[in-house]
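Whether sequence alone determines local backbone shape is best considered at the level of individual chains. For completeness, the protein is quoted in full, as a sequence line and a line of structure tokens:
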Amino acid sequence: MILIGAGAFFLALAPLVRFYVARQVVAAPLNVYEKTTLRADNATYLDTSKWRVQKGATVTATNTTRGDVRAGDGKIAVWDSFTSIEDPTNNAKIETQTQRAVFDRRTAGMRNGRGAAVNGDSNVRQSGVGLFWPIGVKRKTYPYFDISTKRTWPMTYEGEEKVHGITTYRFVQQIPPTVTDTIKPGVPASLLGLPAKQVARLPGYDKKNNAVMVNRVYQATTTVWVDPRTGAPVNQEQKVTQTLRTSDGVDRLTVADLDLKMVPESQRDLVDLSGGQAYKVALVKAWLPYGGGALGIVLLVVGLALAVTGRREPAPGGAAGESAEGPRPSGEQPPDREPSS
């Protein structure tokens, strides 16, 4: 009876774990800390401290992501991301980017509120996926939020690929030339390399400061490798081009040409972190429910078998005065037996 009860318990527990408990506990973590580095060799960028275009430089983009546990809850996660782009050789700070991402812990859909902001601007509406992808990501196109343009662009599934031994899904996002901001009162006219007469005729020319108002135009191809078991990105590349466009609609100068690739050390760290999370997901979604169900069936079968065989087994002997053939009629004498030697 104990085996039958234990078997029934595990059989009832298996679907409960698979279809209820797993949905409750399999989600993006609230407490997260990740630090990754991307590097671009032979890069071009504008050093705004000297208003000079640097070429052939080595540029690094270091990102730190930390979860705000107190701001999150059972449904929503809040992660803060800080990226510093710099030229360590020339000790030049190129750009900093910040993002406070608020998203659904299960669908990865980005939300607003709870301080969500891009570069400190809480008016930016974030949507699609961003720092985190849904667990069990599908082979399809996802809307992906880009913090440089502050817009959502489609990111297309383009196949499977191994990253340090694990199978990942590769997604690619193409961002066309997009105006991201306007530089006022402008950049030094000498930076554009145009004749003085031509500069003077440009719309937005400030004669007093000898500066030209320009728009910064951003274009990028972003590739992300995602572990489908956990929704965690484990590798990233970003090819970025930025130009200065004058008010007459002409791109005058390339001020950023970066081919950023995640360094192998950061890839391995993310793969190891994702592997630990994948083990926990598999434990709740597969091993516990299916293993518990199989154990329940075994215990139930063994318990029922023992119960049936126990009922069919004869009594171990008769009462006092009875032989194995059954009780003798009243007055009947026992048969004579030969004395044993």
Q: What stands out?
A: The helical segments are 2-25, 196-200, 264-312. DSSP finds three helices and 13 strands in the chain. The two ends are 49 Å apart (CA to CA). The CA atoms of residues 144 and 328 lie 93 Å apart.
